[in-house]
Amino acid sequence: MSEKQKIGWIGLGKMGVPMSKNLIKKGYPLTVYNRTKEKTKELASEGAKVADSPKELASVSDVVISMISDDPALEEVSIGKNGVFEGAKPGLIYIDMSTVSPVSSGKVAEAAEKKGIKYLRAPVSGSTALASAGTLTIFASGPKDAYDKCAEIFGAMGQKIFHVGTGDEARYLKLLLNMMVGTTSAMIAEALVFGKRGGMNWEQMIDIINASVVASPLVNYKAQMLKSRNFTAMFTVDQMAKDFDIALETGRSANVPMPMTAMVRQFYEAIRAKGKGDIDFFAMVTLLEELAGIKS
């Protein structure tokens, strides 16, 4: 049996912690870095080493994985001062699993090529619960040989894993899926408010939709949330708005008209304007009820 790769992990947020823990469970030697060092203590207690910078982390790793918040964070930890690329050894594989723009990702790809670093883009689909269970869906793009070398690493974190191209294809795939998911929330909200105005029983209406031709894994996943009207966030309005912004900017740069995405983005902004950006994005129904003058 070959020796397991030494992994460096950057970003210990809601998704980063359970994902990195699964690597420890599978026996991978792990070094972690987080801008807020306090957040590294939980992983350190489970055997991870702690680095003081991405540069230091890269110097002791065969594979570096980042799961961070946005474009500036990606560029800071990878190509910035004391970043991964400053400490990378020859042959390092760098995997970013965040949801970021193809434009920012392209900058990292260009720098990686110049440094001889194999760069994989591998955003994920799934909740924190799926991250904990190691059953995320992972979309990867980048050099196929690097992807093959990391197959077991991906398998420690995900159940469904796809290699979708050699460039930034995974970035587009993640964004288009979130476009569809976010737009579905608005469509369902509008339909439910229409049915509520017509006198439908709320829970029965949702059950029937969930057993109909328009049922989907997403509808099934969100059905109980809608029935109970408990919109504790699995994925927040703020997060969905961020992803829509990335998609819209990417579409603008590529001359792709995206009128439906643009319109739905404004509804998310209306929720944020009410100070409710931290609730689940399926709370869109409450905004549509308010616009219709229906008490929730």
Write up what this structure looks like.
The protein folds into two domains: 7-167, NAD(P)-binding Rossmann-like Domain (Rossmann fold); 172-292, N-(1-d-carboxylethyl)-l-norvaline Dehydrogenase, domain 2, CATH 1.10.1040.10. The longest helix is centred in the middle third of the chain and has 29 residues, at 169-197. The protein is α/β, with parallel strands linked by helices. It is built from 15 helices and nine strands. The model has no long low-confidence stretch (mean pLDDT 96). Helix 1 links the parallel strand 1 and strand 2. Helix 13 (237-253) packs antiparallel against helix 14 (259-273). It is elongated, with a radius of gyration of 21 Å. The protein has helices spanning 16-25, 41-44, 54-59, 71-78, 84-87, 102-115, 128-133, 144-149, 151-157, 169-197, 202-210, 217-228, 237-253, 259-273, 284-292, and strands at 7-10, 30-33, 49-50, 63-66, 93-96, 118-121, 124-125, 136-140, 158-163. 53% of the residues lie in helices and 12% in strands. The strands form two sheets. The chain has a six-stranded parallel sheet with strand order 3-2-1-4-5-6, with helices on both faces.
